Amino acid sequence: MGAGWLSRWPVIRQLKGEDGRGQAARSARTDALRPRVEGADTVARSVCPYCAVGCGQLVYVKDGRVTQIEGDPGSPISRGRLCPKGSASKQLVTHPGRQTTVLYRRPHGTEWEPLDLETAMDMIADRVVRTRRETWQQTHEGQEVRRTLGIAGLGGATLDNEENYLMKKLYTALGAIQVENQARI
Predict the structure, then answer these.
(1) Residue ranges of the 4Fe-4S Mo/W bis-MGD-type domain (predicted)?
(2) 68-95 residue pLDDT tens
């Protein structure tokens, strides 16, 4: 089989326009199509937030809004490929059903109520400080332990390495010793 077999392949002949059917493979709609990333103002390199693999992503932004997320061919980890979850990660920031406000359900309550972020953060800080104070152990069975068993941390797969590092540092500074990550479980 010689090198000429490729030029005899019907698709190649159509696209080259050699057999009169080249235009049959095209339409006005096909000619009008443009890449989804063509009009982007900026492109940011990022890491997929779904698991511990760390696949590289290119995030395309136009007018301050994410318009497309694709695999980064320059990533030595994923070489431009994304799994189905990574391919759909644009929805994390653009889906209309995305929760954008803090909701709180009071103890024994049945309804969620909106809270402003500052109030929610103050509530969390107060509870962390109170729990640490109430459950602090300076010693255990004669050994100095300086810990609390009242606070634990479970990181999620949507946290990257840097975020997990900071979470571990925070929990360690609080004296928590039960720190794990869902991506490892």
Answers:
(1) 41-97
(2) 999 999 999 999 999 998 999 999 889 9
Q: Which 8-state DSSP code applies to residue 111?
A: S
CATH ID of 42-94, from 3.30.200.210, 3.40.50.920, 3.30.420.40, 2.60.40.420: 3.30.200.210
Q: Give the span between the Cα atoms of 127 and 167, in whole angstroms.
A: 17
Indicate if the pLDDT at residue 21 is higher than 70: no
158/139: higher pLDDT? 139
**Furthest CA-CA distance within the chain:** 91
Q: Domain limits of the chain?
A: 3-32, 42-94, 122-184
- The answer to whether 82 and 71 have CB atoms below 8 angstroms apart is yes
What's the CA angle centered on 49, arms 45 and 53, to 5 degrees? 90
Alpha helix segments (H runs only) across the chain: 10-16, 28-32, 84-87, 91-94, 117-135, 161-174
Q: What is the pLDDT of residues 91-110, one digit of tens each?
A: 988 999 988 899 999 999 99
Helix ranges, 27-159 (H): 28-32, 84-87, 91-94, 117-135
Tokens for 80, please give them.
Answer: 């431009």
First to last CA, the chain: 54
The length of the chain in residues reads 185
3-state secondary structure of 6: helix
